[in-house]
Amino acid sequence: MxxxxxxxxxxxxxxxxxxxxxxxxxxxxxALGHIKPLQKDLIDLSFIxxxxxxxxxxxxxxxxxxxxxxxxLKYDYLLFFSNFNGTWNQYIDAFSAVLSRGLNLVWRWxxxxxxxxxxxxxxxxxxxxxxxxxxxxxAYPHATANxxxxxxxxxxxxxxxxxxxxxxxPQQFADAYFNFVLQVQTxxxxxxxxxxxx
Amino acid sequence: xxxxxxxxxxxxxxxxxxxxxxxxxxxDLQIRNYLAKLSTREDSPFALAPGTHLxxxxxxxxxxxxxxxxxxxxxxxxxxxxxxxxxxxxxxxLSGLAATIPDHLDAIWKHCVGYPGAAxxxxxxxxxxxxxxxxxxxxxxxxxxxxxxxxxxxxxxxxVADFIASHQGAxxxxxxxxxxxxxxxxxxMPLPKPGSMGPHREIKTGGRNE
Lengths: 198, 210
Prior knowledge:
The complex is a heterodimer.
Chain A: E1 4-5, E2 8-17, H1 19-34, H2 40-44, E3 48-56, E4 76-85, H3 88-98, H4 100-107, H5 119-129, E5 130-131, E6 135-138, H6 145-165, H7 170-184
Antiparallel strand pairs in A: 1-2, 2-4, 2-5, 3-4
Chain B: E1 4-5, E2 8-16, H1 27-36, H2 45-48, E3 52-60, E4 79-87, H3 90-100, H4 102-109, H5 121-130, E5 137-140, H6 147-166, H7 172-188
Antiparallel strand pairs in B: 1-2, 2-4, 3-4
Helix pairs in contact in B: 3-5
């Protein structure tokens, strides 16, 4: 069992919600999905590679027959899966500091949610509703979300310069190369093993 | 569609695990035991099969009771959660898994209710879809690149850093000649294996954190 692979942490959390409240939450997520500026804080928290929320209706868990018992639940459940870089404490701290309004909007419909500020109660709540990952795979364990974003910027700039290189004389190329270095210089951090906490 | 963000698909599958009081160890423990021994590196099943950025498998024993005044309740089945962030089309992805890693899939999902096996490709896809939950909101930091494009870009990033470092002050003619050769070599380099830790470099750049 490990929640960590390389530079990524896998978080799983499940919280109960009264069924009538899930419709409000669905509406909020609908707005979040369709009004891109609302995602700004989530994007600015640039250590999240992928994250998802899944509302599971109380009668919506997969039922396949073959001797499986029907679930008899009173609550709907909100599942949250996140893939982020850094430690659990850094993640929750940043979530609480940067996204507190957004988090409250998403989780206030869950039972006993204390609010994302103050952070101590918020952390206690997350620790209670979190469950551990049994198997965690990433195709690029040495890279963070920012590394991936930077790598694509470098690749795109290189492709442009490569196209130009065939067409221009050495001096024109040297000028273009200089601009290329300016473009990519902040995106060249080395990717390697994750740091080990001492 | 909330399951997709750009070109990335957010797959969420909950497969009910067989409840059998006579099974020793229980089916959920057998899954956990198998997963504990499974590689997470370049020989991971998800590295061998195409199209997985990040994936996790989790045995969910029960729902969580958050305390009074909420009501305490329990699941009647345990569920195997398969959460995958993968490239493109769901049918192609599931088909790729079934074609490439059928033994692993069978070893894990044979403990789940109604699992038909990966050999029957269409039955496998239908089963996975029957266990799928629709994602309500899916966020992807980079949503327009495939796994191989990202691995290629990470490889390029490292190589470009080295090229720039070794060509400081080079005259224009040499710079252009070496650059064209560098790009050509880069294109012919094999793609880094998914799940590997990338190239090991002896040179460290130094800095406050080292």
